[in-house]
Amino acid sequence: MRALTRETLLSPGDFVLPLFLHDLTVDEAIDSMPGCTRWSLDGLVKEVGEAVALGIPAVVLFPAIDESLKTKGAEECYNLEGLVPRAIRALKAAYPDLVVMTDVALDPYNIDGHDGLVEDGEILNDETVAVLCQQAVCQAGAGADIVAPSDMMDGRVAALREALDAAGFEKVSICSYTAKYASAFYGPFRGALGSAPKAGDKKTYQMDPANRREALRELKLDEEEGADMVMVKPAGAYLDIISDVRKNTTLPVAAYQVSGEYLMIKSASADGWVNEEAVMMESLIAIKRAGADVILTYFAKEAARVLKA
Ligand code: PBG
Question: Is beta strand 37-39 parallel, antiparallel or unpaired with respect to 28-29?
Fold first, then answer.
């Protein structure tokens, strides 16, 4: 009876697995995110093989860039021989049907640890957008299927679309981080990549957690600018936003269950306070029920295993 009347179904096909990588030959467990690893290229290819075997269709890549390559202008982000392009090529060679999604933002590459270029303590919006375009074209050139700008600069979706088309990448999709909040739930992620801002915070470009209507303004802009998919982030504390976005667009809606959400479930269950599997599945079904078609989650493999069992 419950199966007949169930309104929401999860499937491994809903998930995107976020993966961390570094330019070393060893795989390294991430202290700030139990269960997550900074992968070598070989390790990454093996890990993605397991995800593919579990029915997970897509991954998103986050690089930990060597400090020596970080600059004020974040030039490494459009180096075709850089870590991310090499990883994309290795993954597409091993799994041609895999959807490879990339992060478009400067924080792993810039010495300031901000998603944009910084001058005198301020983020330079338009100058940043120009660099993001070079980054996205580089990722598309390496074989990325979806570029996902997480930087929250104004006007970047239109600029990326134009730059991608001009470079011959009309088929590369843009998944915009439409409503990305200035959230404390990102803490463990910044530890994993060593990408925390050196000064200030991200409140001048990420959204105020107090704002709900503003998400719909961001949605309208992203639609007008040509986004193919729109994202809400974080997910669990922003289910109202996911629901609003779902009701106001016909585009696919993605939601990102971020590092802090993952870690709270991991640590509470490691201490035996909650049942990890049950809470994990409940958190994911809630995100889907709120209206997400696509869920980015560090639990993708574990949840897919539960769904397959
Ligand atoms: C930055 C970026 C962040 C995340 C994804 N891309 C952190 C931030 O905005 O500071 C967070 C993901 C997570 O916490 O799991 N471009």
Answer: antiparallel
Task: Express each pLDDT in 121-175 by its tens digit.
Answer: 999 999 999 999 999 999 999 999 999 999 999 999 999 999 999 999 999 999 9
Place of tokens 């769904």: 307
**Centroid of ligand 1 to alpha carbon of 186 (angstroms):** 6
Domains of the chain with bracketed CATH: 12-308 (3.20.20.70)
Tell me which amino acid residue 165 is. D
Q: Is position 202 annotated as part of the catalytic site?
A: no
Query: Tell me: the pLDDT tens digits for 221-250?
Result: 999 999 999 999 999 999 999 999 999 999
Mark whether 247 is an active-site residue: no
> What type of residue sits at position 81?
E
pTM flag (> 0.70): yes
Pocket test for ligand 1, best of 32, 77, 104, 107 (most atoms within 8 A of CB): 107
